[in-house]
Amino acid sequence: MSISEEKIDIKAEEKRLYDEYKRKLEEIKKVEKEKEAVGQVFAKGLLPIYVMYILSLGPTNGNDVARKIGEHTDGLWIPSTGGIYPLLNRLEKEGLVKGQWDDPKKKFQKIYTITENGLNEFEDKKVLLKSRIEESLQVFKIIHKDLYGDDEQLN
Q1: What is the dihedral of CA 18, 21, 27, 32, to 10 degrees?
Q2: Does pTM top 0.85 for this prediction?
Q3: Predicted pLDDT of residue 13
């Protein structure tokens, strides 16, 4: 093989590898978008009520809210604090939670407590969402069965 033929082979291999790299990168981006879409269902639909649930267990700060959600879901869902804090601010403006600085002078950490209005709202939403969550679980089970067959069981 001549030097010019080797250069052509190297160029062809470089192009093939680059094309494969671009294809894999697109696949990764697609998976990330799909994960983001699933995350938005949790963030917009379930996060507010689950944050109120966590606060109904006792006062805590935003970082601990995210950590506790992760603990309760065995690490399957750990919301970012970038989503938790704006939600806590919104819930505070709506009078559903109350935030107080642990040290009013230093304003280091804000501790959130669910208010009586928040507890009432939480209980109302629990009742309203129960059938929707149960229906969603049934849909997921059907889709899981269709895609993966009867061999794999959901708990």
Answers
A1: -120
A2: no
A3: 85
Around Cβ 89, how many Cβ atoms within 10 Å?
A: 15
Amino acid type, 77: W
**In a structure prediction context, what are the per-residue pLDDT tens digits for the chain, which is 155 residues long?**
666 666 677 888 888 888 888 888 887 777 666 555 444 555 567 889 999 999 999 999 999 999 999 999 999 888 888 889 999 999 999 999 999 988 777 777 899 999 999 999 999 988 888 888 888 888 888 888 999 987 555 55
110 DSSP β-pair partners = 101
Q: Is the dihedral of CA 73, 76, 82, 83 positive or negative?
A: negative
Listing DSSP states for 142-154 in one string gives HHHHHHH-SSSPP
Q: How far apart are CA 89 and CA 12, in angstroms?
A: 56
Q: Are 118 and 55 spatial neighbours (Cβ–Cβ below 8 Å)?
A: yes
Q: Which domains does the chain have, with CATH numbers?
A: 46-148 (1.10.10.10)
Q: At what angle do helices 62-72 and 81-93 cross, to 10 degrees?
A: 120
Give the integer Cα–Cα distance in Å for 96 and 119.
8
Cβ atoms within 10 Å, residue 68: 19
Residue 17 structure tokens: 């590898």
Place of tokens 């059938």: 131
